[in-house]
Design a protein that fits this description.
This protein is α+β, with helices and mostly antiparallel strands. Among the domains are: about 95-130 and about 380-460, Sandwich (Immunoglobulin-like); about 135-375, von Willebrand factor, type A domain (Rossmann fold, 3-Layer(aba) Sandwich); about 495-560, Laminin (Ribbon), CATH 2.10.25.10; about 575-615, Ribbon (Laminin); about 620-660 and about 665-695, Hormone receptor fold, CATH 4.10.1240. The chain is about 20% helix and about 25% strand. The protein is built from 16 helices and 41 strands. The strands form 12 sheets. It has a 7-stranded mixed sheet. The protein has a 6-stranded mixed sheet with strand order 11-10-9-12-15-16, sandwiched between helices. Strands 1, 6, 8, 18 and 21 form a 5-stranded antiparallel sheet that branches. β15 (about 325-335), α11 (about 335-345) and β16 (about 350-355) form a beta-alpha-beta unit. The longest helix has about 40 residues, at about 700-740. The chain is flat. The two termini are about 90 Å apart.
């Protein structure tokens, strides 16, 4: 995977496009088409192509004469096999074009065009590169209700400290500021006249009026301006616990010009509050039932739509954050952490920070940690035009760099300068109801939080052009019948004059009817019947590999008519002899014949691809030794050669030097005569002809001495061995006789045995004990002599 990603990074424009048509061409079915293309109800090109991306329509005028228009629909491979040339086939076509002129620093490509047929799909590889030290815009959106007084004071020192800390990650930090409380209507605020302008009048404190959102400071790199604005902020008040934070977030996101978001910067929106927020439909308590429209409603930096529209839904807020490339950060106190924990799960690229106290160091750490974490997550969101949602299917597969992990539609743990690839696959499921093409359906692939995206323009190609003539020959059978009926006054048969093949006695080969001098072939569930005389079909000939005539011919009158280079009953036999040619240029080494591109050997003992091997045969050298021996024993002159030629099979030639004829392969042989002489000869056998060449050069002297020395050594070795064996035998016999004389006084003799191995007596000591033995046990010694051999009838 790593090497593949490296390859991707070096491709021109850093782009890889993968185009694929989702088609699996199945084997031939009963109808001979496969793939589910053909059916009797398919009578037009548009209907055919709607069957699936694997289908094609042949608009050749005379294609499959005599058949219904439905037979023009099928797999392109089937149509080609039936005689429709490729230029006459209308089929699913997927095109992907990239606008290479549009550059990008983070997302590539920026502009792609795709053409799709129904059922087809195409894939685009979108590349997202994480840059280092990117410009950052940070907008503080602060709850200024009374409970946030101490937290607001902490912000006075945040600006300068945060800018210094962010230098580690970005050299270009801009800050902005806005405030919110809640909708300034009952029951969210006290509407008593004394409380509207000063919600804190009961506490003898001067507060600012409640407001839904007030934009205070646009984006600026001047930290002094930011600090000065924070110091001038005053708190406000309301009556209920939840605040209008989500309402204010949407305005801060969509009011691009007022807030001053920079196009090239990473955008962070920080919401600071100590309370939960109102959600959509909460405004019904105040009689506000108009849903939020998602637009900016600022006048003099004050949100004017707060009293007219409901709080935004989470779906609307999520869409606007994505659309405007904004990361959201929630800084909340611990007691509200769990409420916002459920909220951020529904908002993409959101980060939740838990703060015990809104102190400047804690807030700075939260912003820095959130920034690093959000940048390490690279995800994409895909959006389609509303009118195209039901007709297209889209899938996203991330390919993450080393060290990161895939999660959903993105990667986690991505580092700076690493690249993430997203394989975006889009497929067309159906066309418009009227079957016409649809131009420029837009799909936007937007990496979340990035200010760049990929725009994909999709064109659905549902109609058929059928070449320059713009004629697809739909409903041709019906048109022919109508024309014929008009000309003949309803009489459709002409007696078979132009419907019979030469030598045939039946119309249309017995598989159709003749109408107006033209065969209209029968429709068979087994397959198509076609041809001028209905003589061709795609089901009555032998199959090989699931294909009629092995896919290399046409079935005519029940027999395969093969294309050039193929033959046999099922066109499965190649007529080429290239695979049978031996190294010397002969066919099957001259020992066989070439059938179906393979050698068939004449002799069963032969085998090999070119009949070149014969393990059971004698070698050409061995088969000629007798003939060589004849010539050697009778001399090597011409008269002797004539005698040996009459007794030997091959014709023998003599030469001083062994050389083969040009272009012929000879076998070098060596023959050693009974006198120890070595004779070298050559032999060649080809096409029944056998020739033997014998050299007059012989090596006898050296070989004779070698043989003599070898025989002498062998004879001496054998003689020495015999002497040693004889002496050893004499020693054994002498020992046997001396052992027999020492025991002549005994009546024990073992003729032919070595008596030294037979003991003369056995001795055994037996100890007897009583139940209560005395101090000394009694021991009896018994000596038993062996009985003489043969006494008292005993035999051994």
């Amino acid at each position: 995977m790593t090497s593949w990603l490296r390859t991707c990074g070096t491709v021109t424009l850093r782009l890889l496009l993968c185009c694929s048509v989702a088609a699996v061409c199945a084997g031939a079915s009963g109808a001979g088409d496969g793939g589910g293309c053909w059916s009797e109800g398919v009578t037009s090109c548009t209907q055919c192509l709607s069957q699936g991306p694997q289908c094609g329509w042949c608009f050749k005028e005379d294609f499959l004469d005599g058949t219904a228009p439905s037979r023009r629909c099928g797999l392109p491979m089937t149509l080609l096999r039936r005689g429709c040339e490729a230029e006459f086939i209308e089929q699913a076509e997927v095109k992907v074009e990239v606008q290479a002129a549009v550059g990008s620093t983070q997302v590539s490509p920026r502009d792609v065009s795709i053409s799709l047929r129904p059922g087809a799909e195409a894939s685009v590889l979108v590349e997202v590169r994480q840059l280092e030290r990117y410009p950052v815009d940070l907008y503080y959106l602060v709850d200024v209700s009374a409970s946030m007084q101490e937290n607001l004071d902490q912000l006075k020192t945040v600006g300068v400290a945060l800018s210094l800390r962010m230098l580690e990650h970005s050299s270009d930090l801009w800050l902005g500021f806005g405030s919110f409380v809640d909708k300034p209507v009952s029951p969210y605020i006290d509407v008593h006249p004394s409380k509207i302008n000063n919600p804190c009048s009961d506490y003898e404190i001067r507060c600012r009026p409640a407001h839904g959102f007030h934009h205070v400071l646009s984006m600026t790199a001047n930290m002094s301006d930011f600090t000065r604005v924070i110091k001038r902020q005053r708190i406000s008040g309301n009556t209920d616990t939840p605040e209008g934070g989500l309402d204010a977030m949407l305005q801060a996101a969509v009011c691009q010009d007022a807030v001053g978001w920079r196009p090239e910067a990473k955008r962070l929106l920080l919401l600071m509050t100590d309370q939960p927020s109102h959600l959509a439909l909460d405004s019904r308590l105040a009689g506000i039932v108009v849903p939020h429209d998602g637009h900016c409603h600022l006048e003099n930096n004050v949100y004017t739509g707060s009293t007219r529209m409901d709080h935004p839904s989470l779906g609307l807020l999520s869409d606007k954050l994505l659309e405007n490339h904004i990361y959201s950060i929630f800084a909340v106190e611990k007691k509200q952490y769990h409420w916002y924990e459920e909220l951020v799960r529904l908002l993409p690229t959101s980060y939740l920070g838990k703060l015990g106290l809104f102190q400047a160091p804690n807030l700075i750490d939260l912003v820095v940690d959130a920034y690093k974490k959000l940048l390490s997550e690279v995800k994409v969101a895909v959006s389609l035009d509303d009118q195209a949602v039901g007709r297209y299917r889209v899938s996203v597969t991330p390919v993450c760099p080393p060290g990161s992990t895939a999660e959903g539609q993105g990667c986690l743990g991505v580092r700076h300068n690493q690249t993430v690839y997203f394989n975006i696959t889009v497929g067309l499921t159906s066309c418009l109801s009227d079957g016409r093409d649809q131009e420029d359906v837009t799909m936007v692939v937007r990496p979340i939080g990035y200010n760049e995206s990929t725009l994909v323009r999709i064109r659905s190609k549902c109609g058929c052009s059928c070449g320059a003539a713009q004629r697809c020959y739909d409903h041709q059978h019906q048109e022919h019948q109508a024309t014929c009926s008009g000309l003949q006054g309803g009489a459709g048969n002409d007696g078979g004059g132009g419907c019979r093949a030469e030598g045939s006695e039946v119309d249309c080969s017995g598989r159709g009817v003749c109408e107006c001098g033209r065969c209209v072939c029968e429709q068979s569930r087994l397959g198509a019947v076609y041809g001028k005389h209905c003589e061709v079909d795609d089901f009555s000939c032998p199959y090989e590999g699931g294909l009629l005539c092995a896919g290399r011919g046409a079935c005519v009158s029940g027999r395969c008519v093969c294309v050039d280079g193929w033959g046999g009953d099922n066109c499965g036999c190649s007529t080429s002899t290239a695979g049978c040619q031996s190294a010397d240029g002969s066919i099957c080494s001259g020992r066989g014949r070439c059938e179906c591109g393979r050698c068939v050997c004449d002799d069963p003992q032969l085998h090999g691809d070119q009949c070149e091997r014969c393990p059971a045969c004698q070698s050409s050298c061995q088969s000629n030794w007798n003939c060589v021996d004849c010539h050697v024993s009778h001399g090597l002159g011409p008269l002797q050669a004539e005698y040996c030629n009459r007794t030997c099979q091959p014709s023998v030639l003599y030469s001083e030097k062994l050389t083969g004829e040009p272009g012929q392969v000879w076998v070098q042989c060596l023959f050693i005569s009974s006198a120890g002489c070595r004779y070298r000869f050559q032999t060649r056998s080809q096409s029944g002809e056998s020739r033997l060449h014998i050299s007059t050069t012989a090596e006898c002297a050296g070989s004779g001495r070698l043989v003599g020395a070898f025989l002498s050594v062998c004879a001496l070795t054998v003689l020495c061995g015999l002497v040693v064996v004889a002496m050893f035998r004499l020693v054994l016999q002498k020992r046997s006789r001396s052992a027999g004389g020492a025991h002549e006084d005994r009546d024990f003799h073992c003729t032919g045995k070595d008596l030294s191995y037979i003991p003369t007596s056995n001795e055994k000591t037996v100890t007897y004990r009583r139940d209560r033995p005395p101090d000394h046990p009694v021991e009896l010694h018994v000596q038993l002599s062996k009985m003489p051999l043969g006494s008292d009838g005993w035999q051994f």
